[in-house]
Write a structure and sequence with these properties.
A 6-stranded mixed beta sheet has the order 1-6-5-2-4-3, sandwiched between helices. By secondary structure, it is of the alpha/beta class. Helix 5 packs across helix 14. It has 2 domains: 3-157, Leucine Aminopeptidase, subunit E, domain 1, CATH 3.40.220; 185-330, no CATH class. The chain has 15 helices and 6 strands.
């Protein structure tokens, strides 16, 4: 199952278990820990006092009591001391310990806050990167729905280098839609021929994509594959790239049940973000991505921040879908997969 970043109060998330960043004596003194204990009720403290404490990087599980989650997984994050006291390893271990404990208890949905980024002082951009890396690593070999819960924008921070790079790219490539744009009749006719009845292209979005066919591709080659559906093309690309089904849908942040629907229905019509998720998973080039999008009647548009950000990552050969979602969330865009 996939990974999603959401904005919410973790004490209100309805999952099998929420993760509570606590101290070594599990007493719920402040921050998220205090909020979890307050929402759960006194019975939670009664149970945690019987657990014998918890080491940094370790995790222990209790009931959820008055919380909407059935369980609470308690983990102790490191205090930030400049980065030279093994903090990164310990923080990553917190996430993996909690996830492994959830797996032992056969839990299917788990929600994390950003561990150690509050009173423990871990820089938010570094804490975010470690969280996404650890969760992504775990989900490559396990099926579980995992949420990273961010309370507000102030608690979410991209690395300055990545934020600046994406912002510069958006400044150069993002264009507001010109409502008076007159689409070339020849380009529109090419689109109509390729997608006679069910095209999903708005005209202004269509322009860049069809021009790329007109000037960058051999039209004869495009016409030869017009009968190939999205599902057929996807399965062909999986074989050509030497990927397995499991590897493909996990790297796409797609639930295996959705992938099964696509595999078993050659006429399946996916959402645009599903198409792009598979493009990232298969590490397609920009032209290959555009071809896959066209099979379902979509295109990349310079008038969409979402599209431009995806194009940025493809052009930079960065196909880490969790890092891409980290940036999409930071720019308040929809996420890939999920």
């Amino acid at each position: 199952m996939p990974f999603e970043i959401i904005r919410n109060d973790i004490t209100k998330v309805e999952v099998d278990a929420i993760v509570n960043p606590t101290n070594t004596w599990l007493c719920g003194t402040g921050g998220v820990d205090g909020a979890v204990h307050q929402a759960a009720g006194e019975e939670l403290l009664t149970e945690t006092t019987q657990l014998g404490g918890c080491d940094i990087g370790d995790a222990k599980i209790t009931g959820g009591y008055n919380l909407p989650s059935r369980y609470v997984i308690h983990t102790v994050g490191p205090i930030w001391e400049g980065g030279n006291k093994n903090e990164e390893f310990l923080l990553k271990t917190c996430y993996l310990s909690a996830l492994r404990l959830a797996k032992v208890h056969e839990l299917e949905t788990v929600a994390f806050p950003l561990i150690s980024s509050g009173t423990y002082g871990y820089p938010k951009d570094k804490a975010l990167s470690i969280a996404i890396s650890a969760i992504g690593e775990f989900l490559m070999t396990h099926d579980m729905m995992v949420y990273l819960v961010v309370y507000d924008q102030m608690s979410y921070e991209l690395s300055e280098k990545l934020f600046s790079s994406v912002t510069d790219y958006l400044d150069e490539n993002y264009e507001l839609l010109d409502e008076n744009y007159d689409l070339d009749d020849e380009i529109l006719n090419m689109a109509s021929a390729a997608y006679p009845e069910e095209t999903l292209y708005p005209e202004a979005v269509l322009h860049d994509e069809i021009k790329s066919i007109k000037y960058k591709r051999n039209l004869e080659d495009v016409l030869e594959q017009l009968d190939e559906t999205f599902s057929e093309m996807l399965l062909r690309l999986i074989d050509e790239k030497g990927k397995t089904d499991s590897e493909t849908y996990k790297k796409a942040n797609i639930d295996r049940r959705l992938f099964s629907k696509i595999r078993n229905d050659k006429e399946y019509t996916p959402s645009k973000k599903t198409v792009l998720s598979f493009a990232i998973s298969l590490e397609l080039s920009l032209d290959e991505t555009k071809d896959l999008l066209m099979k379902s009647g979509y295109a990349l548009s310079k008038s969409s921040k979402f599209d431009v950000i995806i194009q940025y990552f493809i052009e930079n050969n960065n196909y880490d879908i969790f890092e891409i979602n980290e940036v999409l969330f930071g720019f308040e865009q929809n996420l890939l997969g999920v």
